[in-house]
Amino acid sequence: xxxxxxxxxxxxxxxxxxxxxxxxxxxxxxxxxxxxxxxxxxxxxxxxxxxxxxxxxxxxxxxxxxxxxxxxxxxxxxxxxxxxxxxxxxxxxxxxxxxxxxxxxxxxxxxxxxxxxxxxxxxxxxxxxxxxxxxxxxxxxxxxxxxxxxxxxxxxxxxxxxxxxxxxxxxxxxxxxxxxxxxxxxxxxxxxxxxxxxxxxxxxxxxxxxxxxxxxxxxxxxxxxxxxxxxxxxxxxxxxxxxxxxxxxxxxxxxxxxxxxxxxxxxxxxx
Length: 271
Description:
InterPro entries: KR_dom, NAD(P)-bd_dom_sf, SDR_fam, SDR_oxidoreductase. The protein is an alpha/beta fold. It has nine helices and nine strands.
């Protein structure tokens, strides 16, 4: 275990899955870690201070950041991990459901970031890591709205990084693929299902379930987050795991038509 003091880290959504593994990895690497959960968590990672924070609520975000600042005096790393998934055809979600998704996955990131930036600017240093996804740079049939949030996070993060570099602050995105977490169990279903999409949606459900079973462990993603947090020359994006790196490379170098066919074949959709 590295006992060096790397500073104070704030990890949202740290009560389970990737957030829990990330909080553990950062604590072991020498950070003083504060984790958040939307509701009071019975237990958190050993050595991690757990706080209540709903990233969709301005007051809750302000209270959590103020609490960390009161306890630690500074915030050196923010990991925006909290988020929700939404499964179904794009047409199958009401506008209200789409707005609720963006309020957590996109505006939650913006709320947390805006809350810590004044602190980091005063310090003259800081690092922000936003959890994106391979769905942040490739199409995601039946996850269209979820993919839309991740594409938004990518554009926001990479643009923000250019704004903040001269202030000593860096912003990066980490891009996992399927991860062995409770993601499927907590997946929100579209709120107005249509028969037209029923067969393909059922097929995609089976594909996603199998992919999660074979996916990376949360610890692999946490290792990537730790690398992004400590890299002396941080990159804009860090694919997490072998599949994410492979997909990222294919997306860059394979012609669009070829990538399109390969994606549909992998997802068992008619080519």
